[in-house]
């Protein structure tokens, strides 16, 4: 709804500016009232013409563009940062590959350490799907399972190394 309102506001600004453009053209063509110089009318024409063009173009681009890709701005959905943008909440992943990719994206954003609730909430997966995906990744050797002092399971992805750790790698 906010997207449609923004398009309407931009379109209204463009139409309002076009009114002033038309008025400036008429005043320039008729010589004005004699008190205002033609340069002022020309300046108004340029200013309001530019405003009409910018707001009209913005309304057109916003109207023609799709909403933000589902959750692209979310760590578990292939981007960085937070929020839903215009697209609303992202769709849950449909395949095991999509679930793994979202988990890996989140793990990278979290420096290789995630918990089950973090994965479930950030990756838009059920707790059951999150646990199955994480446990499969542990069995594949992609992640390691650790426990905090309070008993919280932490899934560690040792493949996400800092630049310093990568520089310290040696031949084997």
Describe it.
This protein is mainly alpha-helical and 172 residues long. It contains 6 helices and 3 strands, in the order αααβααββα. The protein has helices spanning 2-30, 38-64, 96-109, 116-122, 127-139, 163-167; strands at residues 113-115, 144-147, 153-156. A 3-stranded antiparallel β-sheet has the order 1-3-2. Strand 2 and strand 3 form a beta hairpin. Helix 1 runs antiparallel to helix 2 (38-64), helix 3 (96-109) packs across helix 5 and helix 4 packs across helix 5 (127-139). The chain is elongated, with a radius of gyration of 28 Å. The model is unreliable at 68-86 (pLDDT under 50).
Note the topology.
Elements: H1 2-30, H2 38-64, H3 96-109, E1 113-115, H4 116-122, H5 127-139, E2 144-147, E3 153-156, H6 163-167
Antiparallel strand pairs: 1-3, 2-3
Helix pairs in contact: 1-2, 3-5, 4-5
Strand order of the largest sheet: 1-3-2
**Regions with little confidence, pLDDT below 50 for 5+ residues:** 68-86
* Helix-residue proportion: 55-70%
User: What is the terminal-to-terminal distance?
Assistant: 58 Å
The residue-averaged pLDDT reads 81
Q: Output the helix-strand order.
A: HHHEHHEEH
């Amino acid at each position: 709804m906010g997207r449609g309102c923004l398009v309407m506001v931009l379109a209204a600004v463009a139409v309002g500016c076009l009114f002033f453009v038309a008025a400036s053209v008429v005043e320039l063509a008729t010589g004005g009232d004699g008190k205002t110089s033609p340069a002022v009318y020309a300046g108004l024409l340029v200013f309001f013409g530019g405003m009409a063009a910018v707001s009209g173009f913005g309304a057109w681009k916003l109207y023609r563009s799709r909403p933000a890709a589902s959750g692209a701005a979310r760590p578990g959905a292939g981007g960085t940062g937070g929020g839903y943008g215009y697209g609303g909440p992202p769709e849950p992943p449909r395949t095991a590959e999509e679930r793994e990719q979202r988990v890996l994206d989140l793990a990278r954003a979290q420096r290789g350490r995630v918990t089950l609730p973090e994965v479930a909430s950030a990756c838009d997966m059920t707790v059951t799907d999150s646990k199955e995906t994480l446990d499969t990744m542990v069995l594949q050797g992609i992640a390691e399972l650790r426990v905090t002092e309070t008993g919280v399971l932490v899934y560690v992805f040792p493949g996400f190394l800092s630049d310093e750790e990568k520089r310290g790698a040696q031949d084997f």
